[in-house]
User: What shape does this take?
Amino acid sequence: MIQTRNVEKNFPAGAEKNFALRGVNLEVMEGEFVTIMGPSGSGKSTLLSILGMLDGAWSGEYYFLGQPVHKCSNKQRSELNKRYIGFVFQQFHLLDGLTIFENLDVPLSYRGLKSGERQAAIAEILDQFQLSGKKSLYPSQLSGGIQQLVAVARAVVGKPKLILADEPTGNLHSQQGKEIMELFTRLNGAGTTIVQVTHSEVNAAYGRRTIQLSDGVVVAEERNPPH
Assistant: This one.
């Protein structure tokens, strides 16, 4: 599903360049559950943004479902993102002016689903996340933990082929975090590919493979025992 070749990302720093990523070669097969780990500043979130096609300012090659993303226009990248990818952001990125129901409707609206189909999908996910009673509230009326649950619900409501999750349980207490990881495991078992960034060894163990980044370079890769 994902293949990168020599992907690099740098920022100008005076006369020099600071590399956020350097020579990253990565393969993720369809149906895998992969964890990316590394210290703060190692390039994890930067890599996830590139894989999610939110960042187009990088060099190298990136193939997604056989499509050469490095040759795509911004519009083409945006279309691939909307059609195939669900993203769980560390900072939620919920739309403050929309209710929870309306936030969940946004990714579905990109997919050309009829109103009835969208409403049924949202009702199902609200029930699954025990959020039905909060569907008319706005993000500012919710705790950080509930906002994170809504962000995860928004990522999965459209049944994307790929879920990219940046510290998906960072704002949740341990039981909520466990429930989210078990949900990801079920989605993965049903065929959804998942790539997560985490500092948590517990969350990392849910993945089948762990990739270690340090200073923008892949320094290790290991397979995890079955969870």
Observations:
- The mean pLDDT is 93.
- The domain at 2-223 is CATH 3.40.50.300 (Rossmann fold).
